[in-house]
Write a structure and sequence with these properties.
The structure holds 2 protein chains of 2 kinds. Helix content of chain A is about 35%, strand content about 25%. Chain A is of the alpha+beta class. Among the domains of chain A are: about 15-45; about 255-595, Beta-lactamase, CATH 3.40.710; about 615-715, 2-Layer Sandwich (Trypsin Inhibitor V, Chain A), CATH 3.30.10.20. In chain A, strand 22 and strand 23 form a beta hairpin. In chain A, helix 10 (about 255-275) runs antiparallel to helix 19 (about 575-595). The radius of gyration of chain A is 37 Å and the shape is elongated. The termini of chain A are far apart. Chain B is mainly alpha-helical. Helices cover about 75% and strands about 5% of the residues of chain B. Chain B contains 15 helices and 3 strands. Chain B has helices at about 1-5, 10-30, 35-40, 45-65, 70-95, 115-135, 145-160, 165-180, 185-210, 210-220, 220-230, 240-255, 280-310, 315-340, 360-390; strands at about 95-100, 100-110, 115. In chain B, strands 1-2-3 form a 3-stranded antiparallel beta sheet, with helices on one face. Chain B is globular. Chain B starts with a helix and ends with a helix. The chains are: A alpha+beta, B mainly alpha. Chains A and B meet through helix 1, helix 2 and helix 6 of A and helix 3, helix 8, helix 12, helix 13 and helix 14 of B.
Amino acid sequence: MSETKTHKPWSVRKIMLVRSALVFAIAVIFGGWIWISAAKLQFGNEEFSAEEMQRNTRKVVVEAVRGNIYANDGSLLATSVPRYDLVMDAKVQGCPSDTFAKYIDSFCLLLAQLQDRPYWKLRDSERKSQQQWKEYLYNLRNRGIHYRILLKNLGFDQVKEIREWPLVRLGKYKGGLWFIEDSQRMYFLGDLAKRAIGYSRNGVYVGLEGAFDSLLSGVNGERMEQRMPGRIWRPIKLDNLQEPMNGHDIVTTLDVGIQDIAQFALNKALVSSQAAYGCAVVMEVKTGEIKAMANLKRGTDGQYYESQNYAVDQYAEPGSTFKLFSVLSLLEDGYAKAQDSIKVGNGSARFYDRDMIDDHAPDKPYMTLKEAFIQSSNVGISKFVNNAYGEKANKFVGRAIDMGLGESMGFDIPSRNAPRIKTTTSKDWYGTSLPWMSIGYESQISPLQTLTLYNAVANGGVMMKPYLVKEIRQDGRIIRHQEPTVLNKQICSQNTVDLLTSMMIGVVQEGTAQSLKNPDYLVAGKTGTAKVSDGQNGYKPGAYNASFCGFFPADNPQYSIVVVISEPRGGNYYGGTVAAPVFKDIADRIYSSHIANQPALHTAALPSAPQILSGRLEPTKLLLNELGISSSALGTVKGGWISATALEHSVSLKSLAPLQPGIMPDLSGMGLRDALELLNTLGAHVDFMGYGRISAQSLPAGSRISKGQSVTLVLKPF
Amino acid sequence: MAAASQLFKGDRIIWYIVLILSLIGVLAVYSATSTLAFSEKGGDTEFYFLRHSGFLLMGLGVLYVTHRMPYQLYKIMARWGIHLSIALLVLTLVVGHDINNAARVLPIPFLNLTLQPSDMAKLFLVLYIARVISKNHEDAGTTKVFIKALVAVGIIVLLIAPENLSTALMIFATSMMLMYIGRVNLKYLGILAGIGLSAMAIMVLFLTNISTQTARDLGGRIPTWKSRIETFSGNNPNAESSYQQMQSKIAVATGGLFGKGPGHSTQRYYLPHPYSDFIYAIIVEEYGLFGGLIILGCFLVLLYRCLKLMTASPQAFGALTVVGLGLSMSFQAFLNMGVAVGVLPVTGLTIPLVSMGGTSLLFNSLSFGIILGISRHIQEEKRKQAEGAAVDA
């Protein structure tokens, strides 16, 4: 018994030992299998590494900042600014329902109150009452929407404010609200010169933006980013893989004031004539700088918009404005003198198989060359030209070609179309081609080319190349400066220039454009009224291009202007009555502000505190701080707009009053650009005269102002 | 040294294992929860780190207290724990919280905590089986012993299986092994194993042959099981579990010999539950094959030490308890690792003391506490014997 008793526990232990050794052996084998499997995964599975790499790192484009576009005085026309969208993840897990419920009311109230702030340009979907916002956000939450833009296009100031709002303050993961940044192109002049400056149309830039896109856009950089917890990507290295090169800045020749006048005047004429479209271009005679380039087209709503560049793109038969070339040619070649006369009969002449007819029957059977030009007699001019060049049409055509009218001038904004001067070798050259060419048909040139020709006459025969870009800068350094370019040193003799000028003065004084006659300055120019071609179908019935091209003051030419108004309605389609008034509006304004009263410099001793224009609060304060001048704000400043009063040693700033939507504010003392921006937000159309600071406004402060209403501002130098 | 051995009694190597596992666990959990921290806690990356550390410290406290307990207390646990476990399991089935479509946890009233009773049941079932066998130490091979153990195993496994099949299967297998080592009649075990395997085979056949729609109609965890089995057999490349397995393999494959370094896992963004079910994948990714070997080695050594303790234990209960707990934890760890490296179908099993999870930390600490307590008891018995021998001499 005792033997078995001592033996049995040993036996028990032995059995247990053997069995546990077996279990352990299995465990070792299993463990080894696991580890070897892990090791095996690491070999021959390159696709795993590749996939892992590709998922957790990414190459990101570092966008280059697009260059700015400036007006000739250095004011900004276009720039890229960071804009922000407020985005909501209505189902963010870090925001439990009680937190959401706790803050939603105050958050929605603040959203709703945005409507009371006229300077926050809200989209329609952003105009909601507190209750509507609340319903909207709860709806998003219930539907589990993870990404919805609540507010678009916020400026940095606005972001700074909204960041402190309830819910937003909690951050992306707990509040479900955050901002995404985007760069947006800002145009400071609204519709002013919009087409010439350009913009992005379906992702493609037009105008200067398009023409200089490669310079403006710069070169994007690249960097590698690595995935981090919480949907965050972090740059792997401090340095970018490829540094971005910011775009170049472009300084244009555009004059904001003249551009505004040109556009306003053109718009007025288009509206009253109900024309389809039109353009007006102002050029500086001596240099060829384009001071204004306005293009307007009627939209489906009957309003006019800057949507196509007719001045550059509209290659059409110019009509009577081309008679300048015919007369120039006749005089230069010595085939006719101003006083030579020709029989015009009753205003009709037959060339080959076609009758040439004058619009207005001549009042006498014979006309001098000068009279034919002044009265714009088709019969007279065409007969002169046909008599002179009938057997040598090549000489007439050759001059136009030599002058460069047959080819595009390489303008800063390229055109998709090209001019055409018909030559004797052209397939469609016909027996009637020469006489009709002489009065502005059978050739297609752009308004800008017509202007260039007239400008050459104004400039004593020196043809200047029109240009819009004065300087190209990179990071503030001028890398290219455009000097005026001479296209043709002498298109004709000084004698011819004088004769042509006197004839063009005659057009205004006694001819087809007498509406331009004024006691202050002399205008030289020529009207044009051309039928509008309809391609293969001949001419559009009843459709005309009414134009006027000329320069002023005729005795000392400073500016040349072309105006073309296409397809005016209502029976009045003559250049002298439809287009000439636009010329007058522009010329009057330029004359009064740029030519007549060249002001003496303000020489009075400056007060110890400077004169401060009314305007935006922040820059004003910044400037005063910079100058070390103390400023005091009276009361709270609403909306960020102030009026400033200089005291003896300090400046007092007070809120601009009244400042509400639909109410005209007091603009006195404000600079033009601030006033334009402010009135733009009120939807007013601004018209101004003079320069300096605003001294009077057509609409008194406090009166109602409606969208699209015109306001005239009078500026006086201070 | 002397002071340390006064404070920390019992098997020193097991103490080291506890230390290593805890440390690696804290590091891996900190890294693996970063994504969860952003989705759940608003980017507060310390939240889960601190919570895990807190539970771990609590667990280590429990461990420490447990290892100093009188031996008798373990026996009392073995007696009553099983009843408590069964009660809580039943309660969980009735009022349990859903995690991943499975009612596995029981909310604890008044405390913002939940309890996963399967972790508790696993521990107390081992103690219970050890008790049953040790009480009939002389005739462990009898039908009575087998039936007694079988009833407990059956109840526990059947209560866990509907919501957590993998844990149930693991508990069943662990119990089988423990009974095998405890010398329960091989014939019975063979029959039981046969029944178990046949049931599994039938189940697999059933799941692979019903349509997905039928599986959905049957409800519960059936669609998940079906999907996991199909994924593992390569028949369901688009399933969620297939995605998980692939992510896990990528993690292991890109780890290299020494890993990407602490906190540099990228697969944590793609792996579901990288802090528990797939913690081993994260460990291999961040610490490489080397780190993977350390964890694996820890559990092999743990098992080895437990078997050594068994042979040294004067009491059958202690011997079987140590083996049972060691087996249970090592086996579970191996299953987790097997899933991570793709040799086993996807399960929801964690690595003891490493994975995040309060209940699991607590009961695994308790397990380690009991193992260390019994090893302390064995050491003391030995010393007494040696002293007795010395006195005799």
